[in-house]
Amino acid sequence: MSTQDSQMVDFLCTADELAEFHRRGYAGPFTLYEPAEIKRIWRRERVRLMDRSAAVYQDTAAKSGVTNIANYDRHLDNAFLADHICRSEIVDRVSSVLGPNVLCWRTEFFPKYPGDEGTDWHQADTFANASGSPQIVWPQDTEFGGTVTVWCAFTEASIDMGCLQFIPGTHRTMFYDETKRMHYDPNTVNSVEKEGARRGFFGYDYRELQIDPDWKPDETRAVSMEMAAGQFIMFWSTLMHASHPHSGKTNDMRLGFAARYVPSSVRVYPDTDVVEEYGGRVSLERYGSVVVRGRNEYPGNRIATHTTRGDRFVAHRR
C-alpha cells in the first residue's frame, strides 16, 4: 500500500484490539512496508544518513564515540524517517491508546551485528535510568507512565538475528527504580553473561536498578517477536522486554528503528538542556518533539516543525 493510499484508511484499534493491548502490553506485528520495499528504501537512506551536517546532535557525540546518542532523532533531519513516524498505520494505532494529542519525542536505531549479545531484560518509565533525571514526566493526576514504543524491523528480525522478547502483562508493575542511576562501563559491551545467556545493556547493568536485588524475570513466560522486514510492533516501554543475541549464523545485521510516543501533555526533557547518556552529554539546542496528531498541550515542550523546504525540522519552544 502506498503512503497516499494509507492516508485514506482508518487504522484505529478496535475495542477488542485495544483491550488486548492493555492486557498484554503490546500489539502486532503489523505490516508497514513489504520486504523488498524497505530493502530498497534502506539501501538509499543509509547512504543519506551518513551526512550528519543537519543532525540535531553534532560533533560532541560523534567525536566521543557515543554512537547511541549520535543515532537518536535522525527523523529530525531525514525526510524518510520524518514521514515514517507520521504514517497513519502507526499514528492511528498509537492515538487509539494515548488520545488525540500525541508527540513523537525520540527515535533511535537498534542495530545488532553478527555475534552481538542480546539486550538484557528492562523496563523504562521516566527514562531516567542512565542520567538519574527523568526525560519524560506525565501529569501528576495520571496513574500510568512510560511511552508507547513503535519498533519497526528495517531488516528481518528472527530469533537467530536477535529479535525482541516480551513478558506479557508486566507493564503495570515496575521492577526497577530508575532514580538509582546506572553506571556506564563500555568495557562490558558483549562481555556479560546472565542466566546462561549473553545479555547486556549497551555498557550498563540493569540489575543495578532492581528494587528487589534477588528478583529475576520469569523467562518461562517470555515470547519471541519475530518479524519480517517492514513489520512493526507497538508496546509500552514499561513492559519487560529484551532481545536475543545475534547467533552469527548469518552475516546480515538486524536493524530496528524505534519511535517513542507520548500524549502531548507529558513534559519532555523537563528542566534540562542536555541529554546525558552512554558517557557523554549532547545539547538539546536543536532538538524538538514532533506533534504527530492534534496539538501540543504543555507550553514548555520544545516542538519541531518542518522547514519551508520540508526536508527537515526546526525546533522552538511553544
Q: What is the radius of gyration computed over CA atoms, rounded to a whole number of angstroms?
A: 18 Å
Number of domains: 1
The run of helices and strands is HHEHHHHHEEEEEEEEEEEEEEEEE
Instruction: Kindly report the name of the CATH homologous superfamily.
Output: q2cbj1_9rhob like domain
According to CATH, the fold-level topology is: Jelly Rolls
CATH architecture: Sandwich
Strands of the widest sheet, in order across it, are: 1-10-5-12-2-16
How many DSSP-defined strands?
Answer: 18
Mean pLDDT: 87
Total DSSP helices: 7
The helix/strand class is: alpha+beta
What summary fits the major beta sheet? 6 strands, antiparallel
Low-confidence stretches: 1-6
The percent range for strand residues is 25-35%
Q: What shape does the CA trace take?
A: globular
CATH class: Mainly Beta
First-residue to last-residue Cα separation: 35 Å
